[in-house]
Amino acid sequence: MSRLPAGGSAATAHTARSPQPPLKGVLGRCTHRMCHRSSNLLAKWRLVTLGSLFNRVRQDVQREPVGENDTRRGTLLLLDTEQEEVVRSAWAGRILALGACLARHPPAVGMQLVVVLVLPARDYAALLISAGWILTRPTGVRQQDIRREIELLRPRLPLSVRMVAGDQMIADVLYSTGSGPDGMRVHIGSSQWRADKVSHIEPAPGLPRKRFGRLKLTPPGSLARAAGHAGSWAAEHCRGAAEVAIIGTRSVLSTELALCVGWPSGEGGFQSLSSILRPDEGESPSWASAILPGGTGEMPDLPGEAIMAVLDGASAVRWLPLIEVPTVAVIIDGSSAPEAAEDTLLSVRATGSHIPLSAIGWTPPAGTQALAFEVPL
Fold it and tell me: Which of 115, 149, 181, 210 is the one with CA 20 to 30 A from 193?
């Protein structure tokens, strides 16, 4: 059972060395300047039938009741290793919680739920939302009797599989099974393993050879453990499905994957956003998300299994009318939002109906502008 709070989260984080700006500066822009920049942007948006979009957003922020879970919100702590200081940020915890809330409240069949956030700085927001989503979604992992699983696979051999043995996940061809002086053995790829060393195995008949290989597993951090993934963490790496597609500037998002998160006093310590999201790199043996370019001249190809998209920035927002997944989060940098992005959002919003943020159990951080609506798919 996931213990990620419905309206926010308390966690601790640090970042690896990278060219990213100091976290204190990033989060300063997300708090002290939030109201000023967001209001300036939204004040320019055009009138819609029930008043300006700005007025609608202000109603969402100021008039919606605070949910009963909101009192459990904590502060996300970010450790900037470059500056050797800890930055406290309730904003970051609340953004992570949005992903969890969206995972808990899918739209009705045939509808698309769109949540638009206007932030003075977009740093890390897309990945935090995606991480909250992935940690809250059901894993689909079931307990296995390994010997029975291997016996069930025997008639289909040779067969491509993913297998967890020790601290690694192996993706390769399972050629045969046999017995030795120490019991049942499996022949996978160029190696043999004792069956009692295998903790999970999944058939992967469509896995291409370019994805074969070994992946060293990092243990689940305190955030993953708190979300109920402690017992299934290794087995989850036997899956390859990008349920979340993040569209934005790939070079920037790839750098931000180094952010590490964790609960202040939770068992397991820190883990990187990369280990939670496991973005598909084309030859990955295991993946849970996809990071796609938003600034090209063509609509990026979303994975067929994607059920959520995060559009990070104005270059990605233009694809909103073509996105056909049930849940979409849109992130707008309030310091530099072109008119075209505003026009796109307004045109899509005009085809649907307003959804109060309380309906998804989320309240924005103080000063953040947010709007939710549903449109037909």
Answer: 210
